[in-house]
Structure formats: C-alpha cells, structure tokens
Amino acid sequence: MEWYLKVIKEHYADFNGRARRQEYWMFVLFNTLIGIAIGVVEYIIGTNFIGTVYSLAVLVPSIAVAVRRLHDIGKSGWMYLLVLLPIIGWIILIVWFATEGNAGANEYGADPKNPHDEINEIGQNQF
C-alpha cells in the first residue's frame, strides 16, 4: 500500500526520473484491487459514478508511473504510446515493465534501487 500512496502523493504527475519494478507493479496491484472493490460497491448500489471518478483521478499517476518505469530501462516515455497498438503493443509494454532497470544512472536519472550510486562512483574514481 505504501508504494501506491507514494505514487499518488509524491509523484502524482511526475514524468521525470525512474520507477523501480516494485513501485510500478505495487501501484498496478493496488489500483486493480481498489478498482475491483469499487466495481463490487457499484454493482450493489447500481451506479458507475464512483468508478468513473476514480478512473479519472488515477489516470495521470498511472501514466506517470508507467513513463518513469520505461525511463528505468532506458526507454523514452513516448514508448508508452504502444498501449494504443492492441495486443502486440500491450505485450511489449508488459515485457518492458517486467524487465530489470538499468544498473546505475542513465539519461533519466539515478538508479532508484541504489540512490547512493553517485557517491560510490566518486569513491571508485579515486583509486
């Protein structure tokens, strides 16, 4: 749940930087569980207003965490447009989202797995 809240609170519309696999997949998991719970409640009360509002509320952070996940593997965020290509695009994105991120810093920022990379690199260059 902390990963879901981190994306919602700290990185709501943050398209810069990198997101670890764990951050992305935990967000997807909790987003799905919340969506299912909302669907059950809507079925019971006979409306779809809650789901529509929730979907609109998490649209931006969902895209943002996906873009940051692509950045973690060295891909441009524009590659997320593959979602518009049915089946093949979705499969490619799922594979990329499951791929381990680049070790160390890349053009999109420091490695989120090891935030002290810059310090380690400075120490390595000394010897």
Give a structural overview.
Keywords: Membrane, Transmembrane, Transmembrane helix. This is DUF805 domain-containing protein. By secondary structure, this protein is mainly alpha-helical. It has one domain. The protein contains 5 helices and no strands. Helix 1 packs across helix 2 and helix 2 packs antiparallel against helix 3 (about 50-70). The mean pLDDT is about 90.
Q: Into which percent range does the helicity of residues fall?
A: 55-70%
Largest β sheet strand count, sense and barrel closure:
none
Number of helices: 5
Beta-strand residue percentage: under 5%
- Radius of gyration (Å): 17 Å
SSE topology string: HHHHH
Question: Uncertain runs with pLDDT below 50, 5 residues or more?
Answer: none
